[in-house]
Amino acid sequence: xxxxxxxxxxxxxxxxxxxxxxxxxxxxxxxxxxxxxxxxxxxxxxxxxxxxxxxxxxxxxxxxxxxxxxxxxxxxxxxxxxxxxxxxxxxxxxxxxxxxxxxxxxxxxxxxxxxxxxxxxxxxxxxxxxxxxxxxxxxxxxxxxxxxxxxxxxxxxxxxxxxxxxxxxxxxxxxxxxxxxxxxxxxxxxxxxxxxxxxxxxxxxxxxxxxxxxxxxxxxxxxxxxxxxxxxxxxxxxxxxxxxxxxxxxxxxxxxxxxxxxxxxxxxxxxxxxxxxxxxxxxxxxxxxxxxxxxxxxxxxxxxxxxxxxxxxxxxxxxxxxxxxxxxxxxxxxxxxxxxxxxxxxxxxxxxxxxxxxxxxxxxxxxxx
Length: 369
Known about the structure:
The chain has 369 residues and is an alpha/beta fold. The chain has helices spanning 16-30, 62-72, 86-95, 123-148, 202-212, 231-239, 253-262, 277-284, 299-302, 313-325, 335-344, 347-362, and strands spanning 2-7, 34-39, 53-56, 76-79, 100-104, 152-155, 169-171, 188-193, 219-224, 245-247, 265-268, 289-292, 307-310. The longest helix is centred in the middle third of the chain and has 26 residues, at 123-148. It is globular. The model has no long low-confidence stretch (mean pLDDT 90).
């Protein structure tokens, strides 16, 4: 069986979907599946060093995209690259009668009219932002029919595909097998992990840290992640004037896991997306989470031991304050949290679920549209 996986590669871009495609490629390779990983996006390298084959491809160019697919002759295409250039690859797959899986990771993957928010200042910036939104919405609407034409649609958050009219759709949770590195901090701390950009709403954790600095002066608020929006470079300098706020920049996954293991709490302020990997990482480390008005697949509601989905900033302040006020710290590294993570988000479970779908398509157990 030959499977073509299309996404950016995790060695080029640090992201959840890229990591999931990597572990899927590794898992399929161990099952003796012939895997070709088409590394898309602007940051691709010329060479990769993995057990499975990786080839860089510019999907904006029709000729190299066609040559790649025609030469590899995949039995199935697993697409996890949002809607970027989707129409080109989906059209080729239809022409060659290749089964096609659209694996969505973000809420915008399943919106016909989608755009990403941004921070702007001044009228000129506002005009650029409006033009950008119009361009994004127009492009998204043209690509969306190719999402619906896929043979199977999967999502890491079942709520995202509830309203999608498609005969074959399935929820498949991401998989994790966290490796723990080293992280030392001299004080108690709450952790926030994400790339700094508007959709992640880092301002909300800063507000929280400032509100709590005099109530719990022994607790720091640590931020980890790349700066993706230059707007935040000057803001970080302002934020770090408070002695309980520390920006630690990019950290590898092993260090993040070690930090989660000792954290009082993970604070998550991102706007609704998919099913954030950082939540899963935290739960594997036994770390409870406080999210801001977002509970993917209502998972925290189903398992209250995992933390709380706070309905607004005030609710988050009350919950975090309550957690920090506890004298009994037995809730940290809670075994029940780890058990829930292991039962629902193991790598083997993720790989087996996707493998079964691919096998069903190739064997025509699922009718190709």
